[in-house]
Amino acid sequence: MLPEQHDILWSFLTMMCTIFALYVFNSIVQICRAKEEVNTTKWGVVFGAFLVVIFVMTVHMFTLVQRDQMFFFFFRQLPVVLLLLLVWGYFFKSEDIESQSEPLIRAGYFFAVVSILLAGYTNWLPQQRSDPPPKGGIELTGEMTMEEFAELGRVIVFGAKQVAGQKAIGKGQCPLCHSFDPGDHMGRCPNLFGVEERSHSRVKEDRYLNSPIKVGEKDQASGIIKGKPEEIPEEYRRSGPYELSGEDYLRESLMCPSCYVVEGFGKAGDTVSPMPIIHKPPISLSRIELNAVVAWMQAKDTPGDFAKVTVPLPSPEDNAAQEEESGGDDGERPVFVTGNEPIEEIINTLGCPLCHKIPGIPGAVGELGPPLYEKVNTPKRLKDPNYKGKAKTAHEYTKESILNPSAYVVFNEEAGEPYPDGVMPQDFGQKLSVQALDKLVDFIANTEPEG
Ligand code: HEC
Ligand code: HEC
Fold it and tell me: Region (Disordered): which ranges (predicted)?
């Protein structure tokens, strides 16, 4: 079994324990009803209590992170289930109910059925989730189909391996900010459901043609000339005809986020996009990767149907070049930092620069979250009467902000409203070793405005 499925295993087992307790409770109640001489209230209370305790434990299991779940299951829940078995046996003995089969045999049957179900369930899982991508990111040999190309895009967006309990995030980092399912809104970034359809109408909007810059003008941040697909850097350019298409809009969204800013999602009166330029550091997608992401965006809302995709497939030479560049296993490992990495690498790996300005980290100019001047900020936060967290020191506050961002939601003085809650990922605790967390906190807690 793959390691990332462990927590599904525990969730499954713990739910089974509750079902088992429910089954026992039900069977006791039936017996009590059938037999006059048995004390229904007494036994009902005893087995009802077991059911409640085991259920509460099951609920608690879902709040635990993966590494604590196994311990909890074996040393907390399982003993309770064993005790339940003992009491169950005692019930039959003390009430002289001979007609029933032995509790142990019944429990044995029950858990055998559970194991078979579990085996079936875990076998079925990998198909549900992503299969690992071809080695080295892209397969060189032969022609790629559009389905494979769009799948490559999906892997760039969500990563090849999903870790249970962690949000799936690939090299493109998009899910840090965007959601993709209808009705799923994360606050400060547009939901990308239906973006293929929108891409065609966007380029015809007045807002597209004139704001924040006009078509034909150059965006300073990215150096891209708006609405001119024939003038984007050569290696990213598609081949004609040069009529502005939905594909061009999507590519431009990634290469020049500030060329068009979705209403309500920008800064400075919707003239500046907080989205990073995807083909520049820190994300730095290559042309093929960027095209793959566009292909995926064009196909994602019509599963199995690639008719809407207009992006060209990479040629075999492209593939060879890409292979050389990507150097192997990009995106195949789940994100995790051990603490042996230099601080800059830790911060870049975790993606903090996409949302935060961080003094001392080149390229950390993100704008979705507050600038990290924690040496100056933390005393203010701790003094704020709205602060309800547990931290007493700058160090503790920084740690709390990283592990549990919602403990306190920072107020954005400039915008006159709080920063959006729920945008900062809540699962950094699972991507960091203890050592890495210490190193990160030490660094962040001492940041202050430069100059
Ligand atoms: C740091 C947060 C952030 C990241 C990371 C990010 N985006 Fe965005 N994105 C935004 C914001 C904010 C907007 C809205 C402002 C704008 O139009 O640029 C946006 C807009 C877009 C749009 C235009 C949507 C529309 O309705 O027209 C597309 C397409 C898009 N992003 C795709 C992506 C993809 C694909 C990735 C990953 C490769 C990505 N984004 C990564 C924040 C982000
Ligand atoms: C997707 C965007 C995003 C990413 C990625 C992100 N943050 Fe945040 N962060 C925010 C937002 C938004 C806030 C403000 C809302 C809040 O307080 O929860 C915030 C708040 C904080 C605060 C509190 C700041 C203060 O002045 O009180 C700290 C510290 C922080 N982030 C550190 C980090 C670190 C370290 C990382 C990387 C490991 C990181 N963040 C990654 C969006 C992000």
Answer: 312-335
